[in-house]
Design a protein that fits this description.
Strand content: 35-45%
Distance between the termini: 48 Å
Radius of gyration: 17 Å
Largest sheet: 6 strands, antiparallel
Order of helices and strands: EEEEEEEEHEEH
Shape: globular
Structural class: alpha+beta
Length: about 130
C-alpha cells in the first residue's frame, strides 16, 4: 500500500510521549488541528512540512502520528525520516510541549494523512434518527 498524491509520498512515524510526574506543568497534547477549519493542517519545519495527529491520550502516555512531507518533490531518504522526526519532537519538547518527554519513535511507514473535515454534530445527526420530543 502506498500513500502517494501525484509524485508525493507521506511518511508517518508514531511517537510516544510520556508526561512528567511533575504536576507544575499543564499537559498540552501536541496537534496541528485547526479549530477554525476543523481539519488537521500542515506546518513547516526546515525542509519538510509536518502534520501531527494525536492517536492515544492517557495518564501514562500520549501517542501521536507525525506525517512528514518533503517541501521539494520526491521522497525523503528512509534514514533521514527518523532523524527529522526526532529533531522535530526534541525541539518541540524544549519549547512548546512542556510536561512531556520522549518515550520512543517508531520506524517510518508510508501512510495517508487524514483528509476528513471534522464537524461537530447534534446527537440526532450522530444517531441518524430524530429524537422524540
Amino acid at each position: 500500500m502506498s500513500a502517494i498524491r501525484g509524485s508525493q509520498r507521506f511518511e508517518r512515524v508514531t511517537v510516544t510521549l510520556v508526561p512528567l510526574t511533575d504536576d507544575k506543568h499543564v499537559l498540552q497534547v501536541p496537534t496541528t488541528f485547526n479549530s477554525v477549519d476543523r481539519t488537521y493542517g500542515w506546518q513547516k519545519s526546515g525542509a519538510v512540512d509536518y502534520m501531527i495527529v494525536p492517536t492515544r491520550i492517557a495518564n501514562s502516555e500520549v501517542k501521536i502520528d507525525i506525517f512528514l512531507n518533503p517541501q521539494k518533490r520526491g521522497k525523503l531518504p528512509l534514514k533521514d525520516v527518523g532523524r527529522i522526526a526526532e529533531n522535530l519532537v526534541k525541539g518541540k519538547i524544549a519549547t512548546e510541549w512542556k510536561g512531556l518527554r520522549l518515550g520512543g519513535i517508531s520506524k517510518p511507514s508510508v501512510a495517508q494523512p487524514p483528509q476528513k473535515i471534522f464537524r461537530r454534530g447534534t446527537i440526532e445527526e450522530i444517531l441518524g434518527t430524530p429524537l422524540d420530543r
